[in-house]
Amino acid sequence: MPVDWFGYVYAATVAAGGIMGYAKAGSIPSLGAGLAFGALLGYGAHMNSQETPRPLLQLGTSLFLAGLMGARWNRSGKLMPAGMVCMLSVAALVKNLATYNRYLMPTGTKAP
Q1: Beta strands in 1-112, from DSSP E residues, in sequence order
Q2: Rounded average pLDDT over 61-70
Q3: Is residue 107 part of a domain?
Q4: How high is the mean pLDDT of the chain?
Q5: 86: nearest Cα among 3, 5, 6, 13
Q6: Residue 39 lies in a domain
């Protein structure tokens, strides 16, 4: 399995967003959440880069971030940062589901 570059860039973007939130507004929750989610996504990208990919951590984290930031984007109407993270999260979900669909289905079942 090749290296999950998109996953690593996504993780770094989320972590950098938390750092930027702290630098601009002094938001400690933004820093903590950005670094925590960035670390989870980075570890998920590492797991996706293994011989047998394990996408569930990255899928779950991306789903959570897409929902949370999508709701914030809907409330605020601002593209940065909530809209951008929501769109990146949806892209990560689609990428992982399309690439790793065969690893998510239970053994012995066939795709419709």
Answers
A1: none
A2: 95
A3: no
A4: 88
A5: 13
A6: yes
CA gap 54, 46 in Å, rounded: 9
Whole-Å CA distances, 102 to 78, 98, 108, 111: 36, 9, 11, 9
The model's pLDDT over 13-47, given as tens digits with 9 standing for 90+, comes to 999 999 999 999 999 999 999 999 999 999 999 99
Residue 108 resides in a domain: no
- Domain with 31 in it: 5-101
Q: Is the pLDDT of residue 101 over 90?
A: no
The tally of domains found in the chain comes to 1
| Burial class for 34, CB neighbours closer than 10 Å (0-12, 13-18, 19+) | buried
Inter-CA distances, 73 with 61, 66, 109, Å: 18, 10, 38
In-domain check, residue 15:
yes
Sign of the dihedral defined by the CA atoms of residues 89, 95, 96, 101, in that order: positive
Tokens of 105: 């289905």
